[in-house]
Amino acid sequence: MYNLMADILINVCIAFLAGSLLLGLHRKIMARVQSRPGPPIIQYLLHSLKFFFKESSFPKTVSKPFYLAIVVILCGIWVTAVIVTNVVYGSLLLIFGIYAVHKIVEHNSGSSSGSPYGKLSCVRAVYSAASELPLFGGSILVLYLTVHTMDIGQIISYQAAHGPLIFAAPLAALMFFVTIITKAPYSPFGITLGKDIISGFETEHFGFLRGFIMISESMCWYVLLWLFLTLFFGPLSIIGYVIGMIVITCITGLISATTPMLNPNHSVMSQMTITLIGVVGSIALMII
Amino acid sequence: MSIMIEKLYLLIYLIVFVAGAICGLLYSYQKHIEPYVVKETSIPILIFAIIGWFLTLNYGLLNFIPHFIVISIGLFLVAFVLDMRPGYGRKETVIGIIISVIIWFFTQCLFNIM
Fold this sequence. Notes:
The structure holds two protein chains of two kinds.
Chain A: H1 4-33, H2 43-50, H3 64-87, H4 92-113, H5 116-147, H6 152-162, H7 165-168, H8 170-183, H9 207-232, H10 238-258, H11 264-287
Chain B: H1 2-31, H2 43-57, H3 67-82, H4 90-113
Helix pairs in contact in B: 1-3, 2-3, 2-4
């Protein structure tokens, strides 16, 4: 007998564990590329769990309702994303909404902390939203123009009949891949978490709050990779997903290890340029 | 329903992998307390790696045991070796993969062609 709650629980646990292991692999790849031994692959997972047993302190400067609620919202939206993608195969518009809320969370997390680093990250979150959301939205738009639906289940069925969308909409795949790179740790586009502003909006979150942020990040990583593979490589088996996720994580690890973090202006302009090329190029390809 | 069972198996594999990785990490840090990496192949760890990769890649050869149990045991051993203290278990993992892939090739590809 099918049990919806059990399905949700299983998928959320998979997203957390697989996402954590993949982010651990990402760190390992980065380290090996930079000729360091690097931490064990489960380090990210152990790190996430460790924070729940650490002392949680709240700086005097924080706006407490926002400071606490924003972390709960961050966790909540990515649990919702797991349900929308892996459980109900719902609409891409919902995922776009979740991504938009994620940017708002970055903004409010930084501003509520009262830290200058958090506030700088908050400002960066505002204008990086202006380039990241069109990038992600552009990818979804091109998919919609190609398949005429935003329903993930129907997109999978379309690919089962017509072949993977990576061939029909390569520029949409490129835009989505840049979105994934943006969310990778130490990414060239990761200006909100730049080390020039310590840890950005996460700087003043300690103890269990940081634990929740790390859990959310691992689910975010899993959902983005799952979506990329599902939307552009058609119906895949579980082994296909595992191999695909490992390969993409290795590629992003290589990019993160070899590319310096871009200046915020350059990051935003690069993303906007890729969006412009992606959307205009895809429409031109459809007309031709 | 079958997808849900597949996902449940995947969750079990992930939990087993994490458990194996934690055990491997604890074992290697207890065994190797020196501040440098000893570059020699450990025979017990090599056996773990070979058995682990063999069971993970060639679970179909052991039809008398449910597949998810074979894969779970295999992944536990794979993770045990793979996630030891940084610098340890690399050679063993590579040897384990090579032997298992060769066995898989002979049993799955070559015999099927013949």
